[in-house]
Design brief:
Elements lengths: L2 H29 L7 H20 L8 H21 L7 H33 L6 H20 L9 H22 L11
Helix pairs in contact: 1-2, 1-3, 1-4, 2-3, 3-4, 4-5, 4-6, 5-6
Length: about 200
């Protein structure tokens, strides 16, 4: 791989990774019913609105899920994979494989978002407990729907919350399953963002 190819690979990965995180984070925050007026939420809305607005005219929501955001994330992932495949000299992929790889990549990004969000919540609870920072409040709102079922399963330990351990274990199990599904779908390594 030449230097220009490596630089192009880095730039495509970075730009599309940031865009996919913004779109999927907006979707997850809507799903968690997080504060829409939080400055971080408003930033995500401003970044993704030019891309989501035209899609929303055509694609309605379904059962409270912003299907336009789902379609946008899958299309962005498909575009990134296609650009990377072409740049690396593989040519165009079969559209069915491209779609499967894109869905798996988006699921991988969602798992990564939750992994790092929960890790950040844990660290911030030690460093700055009870903080009213908008970013911290939004992280708590994002992770709470995932943490609550695990908190209900575990008995109370007097202020010690062990539910993140179960959540991390579940995320790692799902990541292993995702990687095996990616291998079964003959996904070329290094071209799908999120896996």
């Amino acid at each position: 791989m030449g230097a220009l190819t490596e630089i192009g690979n880095l730039l495509i990965h970075t730009v599309f990774n940031l865009f996919l995180i913004a779109v999927l984070l907006r979707l997850l925050l809507q799903f968690a019913r997080a504060d829409f007026y939080n400055p971080v939420s408003q930033f995500l809305v401003k970044v993704t609105k030019p891309f989501l607005q035209p899609l929303r005219r055509v694609i309605p929501g379904f059962l409270g899920i912003d299907m336009a955001a789902v379609v946008l994330a899958v299309l962005a992932q498909m575009l990134a994979i296609t650009l990377l495949l072409l740049m690396l000299g593989y040519g165009f992929a079969n559209p069915l494989y491209l779609f499967m790889w894109s869905v798996l990549g988006c699921l991988g990004i969602v798992l990564n978002i939750y992994f790092f969000a929960i890790l950040a919540v844990i660290i911030l609870s030690w460093v700055s407990p009870g903080s009213y920072n908008p970013f911290v409040l939004l992280l708590n709102q994002l992770t709470e729907p995932v943490m609550t079922p695990f908190r209900k399963m575990l008995p109370s330990l007097g202020g010690l919350d062990l539910s993140p351990i179960l959540v991390f274990l579940s995320i790692n199990v799902l990541t292993i399953i995702l990687k095996h599904l990616a291998a079964a779908a003959m996904m070329p390594m290094g071209v799908v963002i999120g896996i």
